[in-house]
Amino acid sequence: MPTPTDRRRRVRIGVAATGIVTVAALGAAALPAYAGSDEAADGKPGHGRTVDLQMLAINDFHGALEPPEGSGGQVTHEHEDGTTEQIDAGGVEYLATALRKARKGQDRSVTVAAGDMVGASPMLSGIFHDEPTIEALNKLKLDVAGVGNHEFDEGAEELKRKQNGGCHEEDGCYNDGSEFAGADFPFLAANVVDEKTKKPLLRPYTVRKMKGAKVGFIGVTLKGTAGIVAPDGIKGLEFLDEAETLSKYTKELRRKGVKAVVALVHEGGFPSSPAYNHDCDSGDGLSGPIVDIAKKTDAGVDALVTGHTHEAYVCSVPDPKGNDRMVTSAASNGRLFTELNMEYDRKTRDIVRTSVQGVNKVVDREQNKAKDLSRLIKSWDKLAAPIANRPIGHISEDITQDRTAPESPLGDLIADSQLAYAKTEDDTAELALMNPGGIRTDLVHKASGDEGDGVVTYGEAFEVQPFANTVDLMDLTGEQLLKVLREQVSGDNADVPKILQVSDGVTYTLDLTKSGEDRIVADTVKINGEALEADRTYRVAANSFLASGGDGFPTLAEGANHHVGSVDRDTLETYLTENSSEAEPLAAPAADRITVVE
Question: Fewer CB atoms near the end CB (10 Å): N or C, the chain?
């Protein structure tokens, strides 16, 4: 399939401020040096006042080394007549080729990322704590990455190991005892600070020198990161406001003579069309948290490269001075990359805003694979194969995670598996709750390899639940349990409800015609056919992320008699093994436990 013609547009933006500022030495003494960053030597300057800069950007890669499957491996292309088509895209072998082609003939090019490069990864990378992905990003010549929430999935110390190298504390070294080298690029975490000292966990910014041009990059993650990662791994850390942090360090860079600034923001928005090439500035444009952040962030920031929502857009959003400023996102899984081209004025030492052009480009699979990335995948795949290909169960049909509905068959299956496990630990366990965000893909009936249709492998189960949370047990009163159900549609989840998946025996009505907590109809809540009793104690199972109050469920963190259990992925494996066979494969649950009134 030929690659559709990419649409390029020019953003009309106010003229950049002029003036000469003396450049001061840059970089914090306590922070390590990286090849090609602040400490790299300038090349010889050209003869014109302006020089061309190229920036290539990705986000939300999530360790997708192999071509992703299903909708996560496609992009929507919009034709001029309004019709659309789906294009298979992604895979790091193709991404490497695409980026290398884009850089050809460019004297001043920088490649950046806006968070979630690792975490929630497929098994090939995930079982090795994403070392394969870091090695791949090094080969891609990634220059700088802002952190996202998933960089904290295994905690702050593990993130530092990914940065600095060294073998895993528990699993050791993987490749013949050779030590993991770490990232060749800096992770930036300007708004992730020590609660007491207020010092950033990692570098807040870096500056790239490109043959006479200097550009500062500041990285921030969403301030709500603490609510969507396991608390134990981020103890003592605080996540500050994105716009305030970006503005603070933009001023600091300006004081040091760096006026060209780009923000790498792991927070995003929602365009009015799913098509990657839709004109974002037409129609309803862009909505979501990034719009407010962009409007508040210091006008000295020349562009915002964003992520988190897995959407594709190249939009203009006004800065605090009312001038339009480019805000971009390149979907997820390496299906797209954003190419930004602009002029740098060597007299003002700033980016000429009126010159900025941006376009999202498809990483199609018609191009050649990068051989060095193919070799990398093959080497790690050899280590992973004995684990990944092990059969663990059988299914008679697709069991999906349908996120368009409050309840999904796969969500019910996982909740059932967790309750079955909980009863082996404590026979008083009565129900299990599962967060839909912890379910990353479907269980597909069609074989992905030579295992045969309907066979579920460990690798497939890993991709469904890649986080390695434990299944924990706790006591909740009926009053607390009702409060948990109401937290699905109130508090942090008031605007975008997060409906928990429930185990067999739990039923209630979700009335979407009402508002706030009233959407949970209290007198319909039943546990194993009995009405919920406010003063009775129930033994509840949930993964460790939820049990610690994650995803906006603080009441779960109040549970008594807490018991830490086995890894959730292992409980799913056990359930599939014990409840399915080739002769009697498991069917998808009916997903009829929550009655929805619309």
Answer: C
Name the residue among 386, 388, 391, 420 with its Cα closest to residue 577.
391
How many other CB atoms are found less than 10 A from the CB of residue 495?
6
Looking up tokens 């993987």, which residue turns up? 174
Determine the Cα–Cα distance for residues 269 and 116; give it in Å rounded to an integer.
Answer: 16
Report residue 494: phi and psi, to 5°: -65, -45
Say whether 415 sits in a helix, a strand or coil: helix
Element (H, E) at 383: helix 371-388
Q: Residue 285: exposed, middle, or buried by beta-carbon count in 10 A (0-12, 13-18, 19+)?
A: middle
Q: Which residue has the tokens 């209290």?
A: 522
pLDDT of residue 550: 86
What percent helix, strand, coil does the chain show, rounded to 5?
25, 30, 45
Q: Please tell me the distance from the alpha carbon of residue 229 to that of residue 142, in angstroms, as a whole number.
A: 25
- DSSP, residue by residue, 484-504: HHHHTSSGGGSSS--PPEE-T
Instruction: Give the distance between the most distant pair of CA atoms in the chain.
Output: 81
Q: Which residue, among 123, 56, 107, 110, has the nearest Cα to 363 in the 3D structure?
A: 56
DSSP 8-class letter at 257: T
pLDDT less than 70: residues of the chain: 1-47, 177
Instruction: Say if CB 182 and CB 166 are below 8 A apart.
Output: yes
Cα(535)–Cα(537) distance, rounded to whole angstroms? 7
Nearest to 273 by CA among 77, 532, 133, 87: 77
* Number of other CB atoms surrounding residue 29 within 10 Å: 4
The letter for the amino acid at 485 is L
- Name which of 182, 184, 187 is nearest 217 in CA terms: 187
pTM for the full predicted model = 0.78
Alpha helices in 224-315 (DSSP H): 242-255, 289-296
Question: What are residue 362's phi and psi, to 5 degrees?
Answer: -80, 135
For 362-409, how does the pLDDT look when each residue is reduced to its tens digit (9 = 90+)?
A: 999 999 999 999 999 999 999 999 888 899 999 999 999 987 899 999
The H-or-E segment that residue 511 falls in is strand 506-511
Q: Distance (Å, rounded) from C-alpha 489 to C-alpha 467?
A: 24
Q: Rounded to an integer, what distance in angstroms lies between the CA atom of residue 302 and that of residue 262?
A: 6
- 96: phi then psi, degrees, rounded to nearest 5: -60, -45
Q: What is the Cα–Cα distance from 479 to 434, expressed in whole angstroms?
A: 19
| % of the chain at pLDDT higher than 70 | 92
Buried b or exposed e, range 136-149, using 16+ CB within 10 angstroms = bbebbbbbbbbbbb
